């Protein structure tokens, strides 16, 4: 059995995987062949080669083109990782030949760009780190999807129930960086700024600015109100980026919500005030996630170590947890 698998791998070429990816995108052999600048008969032969290697049909042929089946979709997930790694190899060799540093692709939530990521990179570069880092900012959905496609080396994101199938997959490993709660915030001149012992029910009548509907934080604040037997607040303004919410709250008209570490940082800078109301629903932890095939990569280990070191300045009392530990 092992010999048969090795034979399949030895027969496979990058062109096979590239065609598989293009077929998944175009659902048309003709369009896929044109995108690769090869003839349609040549593309058809490559498809037959792939199916012969694995001894199974990967596409359903019909008048409307070639529709990938579940086996093709499963194979494509692996193929994308291989293709991205091959491209990364080429980029690194090109950079080295031109006297430039190799590259690392890092994904991060916008809120992690306010402290964790800048501090981590500053720490690394002060210690003779010579890798060029490319950063993709985005929501957990965007980051996990990019990681799944092999477009990121590591993602700093949240563990989400909606994405459990991605992070629970044996292809990925994760490390909890820190855990924290949520805080409700207001402007320094807001009437809630100096109030003590505020009840959740008292917040219903105020003007809210909240993250977009369906976002993690929005779902959690809605859950907080529902658990208390209250209808969730309906925001007058929706902002996806934490800094935008901060500017809205600073006007003194709105109240909003953000992770406790960011709220504490903003309050220390005298930009806002934290409303003294107890919240029970915690935020999902911030984690580092990477492809399992890169678990032995020394660069992953270096960056993960730096992230853990700097995460201690955000939540020093948390317990690190790794699925591999």
TrEMBL record:
SUPFAM superfamilies referenced in this protein's UniProt entry, alphabetically: Periplasmic binding protein-like II, Winged helix' DNA-binding domain
Alphabetized UniProt keyword annotations: DNA-binding, Transcription, Transcription regulation
GO molecular function, one term: DNA binding
Pfam families: HTH_1 (PF00126), LysR_substrate (PF03466)
GO cellular component annotations of the record: cytosol
Annotated HTH lysR-type domain residues: 12-69
UniProt cross-references to InterPro entries, sorted A to Z: HTH-type_LysR_regulators, LysR_HTH_N, LysR_subst-bd, WH-like_DNA-bd_sf, WH_DNA-bd_sf
Entry's family note: Belongs to the LysR transcriptional regulatory family.
Record-given protein name: LysR family transcriptional regulator
């Amino acid at each position: 059995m092992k010999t048969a698998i090795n034979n399949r791998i030895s027969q496979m070429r990058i062109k096979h995987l590239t065609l598989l990816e293009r077929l998944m995108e175009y659902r048309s052999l003709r369009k896929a062949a044109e995108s690769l600048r090869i003839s349609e008969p040549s593309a058809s032969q490559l498809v037959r080669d792939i199916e012969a290697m694995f001894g199974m049909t990967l596409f359903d042929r019909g008048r409307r083109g070639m529709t990938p089946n579940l086996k093709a979709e499963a194979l494509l997930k692996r193929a994308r990782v291989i293709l991205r790694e091959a491209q990364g190899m080429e980029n690194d060799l090109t950079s080295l030949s031109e006297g430039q540093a190799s590259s690392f692709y890092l994904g991060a939530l916008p809120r992690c760009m306010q402290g964790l990521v800048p501090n981590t990179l500053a720490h690394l570069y002060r210690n003779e780190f010579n890798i060029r880092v490319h950063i993709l900012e985005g929501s957990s959905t965007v980051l996990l999807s990019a990681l799944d496609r092999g477009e990121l080396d590591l993602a700093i994101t949240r563990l989400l129930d909606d994405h459990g199938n991605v992070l629970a997959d044996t292809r990925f490993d994760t490390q909890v960086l820190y855990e924290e709660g949520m805080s409700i915030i207001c402007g320094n001149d807001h009437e809630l700024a100096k109030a003590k012992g505020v009840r959740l029910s008292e917040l219903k009548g105020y003007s809210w600015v909240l993250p977009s509907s369906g976002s993690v934080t929005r779902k959690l604040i809605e859950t907080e109100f529902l658990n208390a037997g209250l209808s969730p607040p309906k925001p007058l303004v929706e902002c996806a980026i934490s800094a935008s919410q901060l500017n809205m709250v600073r006007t003194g008209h709105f109240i909003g919500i953000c992770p406790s570490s960011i709220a504490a940082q903003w309050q220390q800078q005298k930009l806002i005030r934290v409303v003294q109301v107890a919240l029970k629903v915690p935020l999902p932890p911030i984690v580092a996630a990477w492809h399992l095939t890169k678990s032995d990569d020394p660069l992953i280990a270096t960056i993960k170590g730096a992230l853990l070191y700097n995460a201690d300045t955000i939540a020093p009392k948390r317990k690190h947890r790794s699925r591999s530990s």
